[in-house]
Amino acid sequence: MVEDYRIENGEVEMRSLDPERDDESHRRWQRLTKEQLIAHVMSNTVVAQWLQRRMGVHSLLRTCAPER
Fold this sequence. Notes:
The chain is an alpha+beta fold. The protein is built from three helices and three strands, in the order E-E-E-H-H-H.
């Protein structure tokens, strides 16, 4: 299985691609929650590093910040 990430309208989205599954439900883009984003940032995953390069560190941190 492969996880594919994108930034769409300022939101981070992910989909799973599994060549062994033929249904469309797993191919749909789903928005990452704040908790998922924070987990990536705290673990310094490859996804977090990619987001930091694409969004910039300040924008990424604002995306993870609690709502006011």
